[in-house]
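Morning run. Coffee first, then this:
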Amino acid sequence: MSHSRVSILGVGISAINMGQALAAFEDWIGRKEQHYVCVTPAHSVMDGYRDAGLRSIFNHSGLTTPDGMAIVWLLQLHGFRHVGRVYGPDLMHEVCRLSVDKGWRHYLYGGEPGVAECLKSLLETRYDGIRVVGAYSPPFRALSEEEDREVVASIDAAQADIIWVGIGSPKQERWMYEHMGKTGASVLVGVGAAFDFLTARKPQAPRWMQRAGLEWLFRLWSEPGRLWPRYSQYPLFVLLAIAQLVGLRRYPLGE
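And here it is:
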């Protein structure tokens, strides 16, 4: 199953909505194909724009989903009117809901100490019958080769179908790319701060702000010191995206 991609500053965003994302998961797990999924807002596109190696990771994913509303609107302006936001916390909820009947097995990798275990408990409470087969919160430092082998062996032994990776972008994209195929999991999904949002460690923007494309403003207000470097890129993103849209700049995929 493949979907059209639209180059946004050279990052190939999958022209999909939530239903199509769920269908892709079902197809991959049913076929036991292995893919990773990048949930991609504008700041991640800017990271890919600046870093060719990271851009290649985005462009070789099974899906690089339109997370931010700015990305959704750009894809719609390119003619893909069906595109909708595929936002990490919402995707996680929808996949977990679907997985109860499908019997899919989940592994949670990420968050500060104790967060993954807390999220495991919350998901098991919310989705009766869900199979969360493991949870691990890695240290902020890089793992040694031996530690990494132990984690991979633990995930593999749990026989997970889906690994949810919540260690922040672009770290999680690089982790997924490097670990693709090292376990039997069909799908690795980078969901950024979803672990913190779903366990209420960080507040989520109201739905009206999300729909209006203002979630970034809410998050900047919540964590100005940490997030200012990220969101200060947005004016440049808008200028570059407009230049691409009107044909002043070209960003072919694969470059």
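The beta strands are 5-8, 11-14, 35-40, 63-66, 105-110, 131-136, 162-166, 187-190. Good start to the day.
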